[in-house]
Structure formats: C-alpha cells, structure tokens
Write a structure and sequence with these properties.
Layout: E1 3-5, H1 8-16, E2 23-26, E3 43-45, H2 54-63, E4 69-71, H3 73-79, E5 83-86, H4 97-103, E6 112-115, H5 121-135, H6 138-159, E7 168-173, E8 178-179, E9 181-182, H7 184-190, E10 199-200, E11 205-206, H8 209-215, E12 219-222, H9 229-235, H10 249-252, E13 256-259, H11 261-264, H12 272-283, E14 297-299
Parallel strand pairs: 1-2, 1-5, 5-6, 7-12, 9-10, 12-13
Antiparallel strand pairs: 3-4, 7-8, 8-11, 13-14
Helix pairs in contact: 5-6, 6-12
C-alpha cells in the first residue's frame, strides 16, 4: 500500500504501526519519527517562513481566512497513493480534507481519503484502530491501543484520589490568548485538575484576558499549537503585555509552565499519552513525582511576565 500522510499525528500513527516503508509522502510539518523527514513533502505553508511570533501568525492566518496550506498536485499525481490520511478538525493545524479532496481529483477513483477527526483521548485511540484496519495492521493497532488505554487509566485512577483539583488555564496561543479545546480539558481532568476555560470536544477559542484573571488559575500551561518548549520560552515575554498577573495564584506560586506542544499536546497521536503524564506530574507532583520528559516542561520565571 502507498500512503500519503498529510497530518503529523497520522504520520506518527503510521510509523508506530510499522507502516513506515509504505509512507511515500508526508506534510511539511511531519517531523516525527525522524525517518519521516526523509519522505517527499506534499504540502507547504503560505505563511512567510520568517514569521514566528504568535501575534504575527494570528494576523496572517486571519488575513488569509485560515487557508494557509498548499498541496503539490503534480507530486501527488506522480506518487499515485492508495490511501491519503488527512483531517477536517482544524483548518489552521494542517491542510484541510476539502483541499485534499480537490487535489485528489487527478488520482485514480480507487484512492481512499480518510479524515481523522478525534475530539477526545478515546477517539484518538479509535483513530489508531481505524488506520490499523485500513492498512492490514489491526493486530499492531490493537496492541498500541491497549498500551495507551492502560497508561491513560493508570493516571486517571491515581488522580481520582486527590482532595484538591487545582484550576488550570491551558493557554493554546499566547497573543492573543486562546484556551485549549478538544482533548485538552479531558487531559487536565484525567490528570487531576479543572479546566474551566477550555471546551471539551470543541475547538480551541480566543478568550479575553479579563476572563483569565477572573478565573484565578492556580496553574498556567503555555502550549501554543505547533511550538516546542524552547520556542515557547522565547515567546513568553509577550505575557508581560497582559495586566493583573499579580492577582493570579499561578503567578504568586510560580506555577506557570512552558511545554512542548508540538510533541505532546497539539497532535492527536500516540505521544498524547506522554502529554497526559507530563500534565499529571505538573498538576500533582506529590502523586506523580517523576517527569517522563524533563525537557518537555519548563517553569517560566516571574520576571518574564511582569
């Protein structure tokens, strides 16, 4: 089978199921595992490569109406894939299903286009099973699903014993501020916290800073979509543009953290379970003393936000 994966999480799933040798092309954002970087790239972003700051990216996306990706139709036709993995969940995160369908008009009618659209952790596991069924790797998918669910349940059951569930603000974009959605509020809940600003199963959304101050979060997680930990730290200074930090418990107790959003939170693939374990350590270090990925989480110094 010849597979084109236009979604980083789908690429991770394919390789995790042992399908790496059948992946003939990926998107420009598919960087894990490392072998994926050696595949032909089918997409590119229309946003200028020099634009990195969150406010500039937000403005550029707004000006383009969210349509920021392009597909190399000639390469797609040349590769003649049997299966294309894409998504319809977020037009900003990756090339949309609609755009892929338009580009696929040059292909054989037998080419299957599968849109992966999970909105919670359980549906992420279901997507892995779906890819397994479609590619003849159901046994491998079932094994991976069992392992993921076991780890999810281990965190969930342990966190149910906590007496206090701190208020968490999961900040999915820094400027302007956005609150996390889809599986993020569920992750916070399973890890023993409360996400009162995010919308479970719904897209992330822009939020007023006054709402954040009023919410009084005890923990703030900086996880701008697509950013690695080092990039978040470089961008964290923009938080100083917001007033009222001294009123926020997370600031008072130095519990503002930058995380590797790209690897462990933004992508709906196998590593999202690692993200859950990172969150559990962050929210309840007394219960989860080990951080499975120390480099994926850094405390943000107070001076960066004042």
């Amino acid at each position: 089978m010849r597979i084109c994966s236009l979604l980083p999480s789908a690429t991770e799933i394919a390789f995790a199921l042992g399908l790496g040798d059948q992946v003939v092309a990926v998107s420009h954002e598919c960087d894990y595992p490392h072998e994926a970087s050696n595949r032909p790239v089918l997409t590119k972003s229309a946003i200028h490569q020099k634009i990195h700051r969150s406010l500039e990216v937000d403005r550029e996306v707004g000006q383009r109406g969210g349509d920021i990706y392009e597909i190399d139709e000639k390469l797609l036709e040349k590769l003649k894939p049997d299966l294309i993995l894409t998504q319809e969940l977020c037009h900003v995160c990756a090339v949309s299903y609609t755009k892929v369908k338009e580009a696929a008009r040059v292909l054989n009618a037998d080419t299957k286009i599968v849109s992966l659209e999970p909105t919670n952790l359980e549906e992420i596991v279901d997507n892995i099973l779906l890819v397994g069924r479609m590619t003849g790797r159901l046994a491998e998918a079932e094994k991976l699903a069992r392992q993921m669910l076991q780890r999810i349940n281990m965190v969930k059951e342990k966190a149910q014993t906590v007496r206090h569930r701190p208020r968490v603000f999961f900040m999915e974009w820094l400027q302007p501020p956005w609150a996390g959605g889809h599986w993020i509020p569920e992750m916070v809940d399973y890890a023993g916290g409360v996400d009162g600003l995010g919308r479970l199963g719904k897209p992330s959304h822009r939020i007023g800073w006054d709402e954040v101050v009023e919410y009084q979060p005890e923990i703030v997680v900086l996880s701008p979509c697509g950013f690695e930990t080092s990039q978040v730290m470089e961008e964290a200074h923009v938080l100083a543009s917001y007033e009222g930090w001294e009123k926020i418990p997370a600031f008072q107790s130095s519990r503002i953290y930058a995380v590797d959003a790209s690897a462990y939170f933004s992508r709906s693939g196998p590593r999202v379970v690692d993200g859950l374990e990172i969150l559990a350590h962050m929210i309840h270090p007394e219960l989860f003393p080990e951080n499975p990925h120390a480099k994926a989480m850094r405390m943000v110094p107070k001076e960066l936000v004042l």
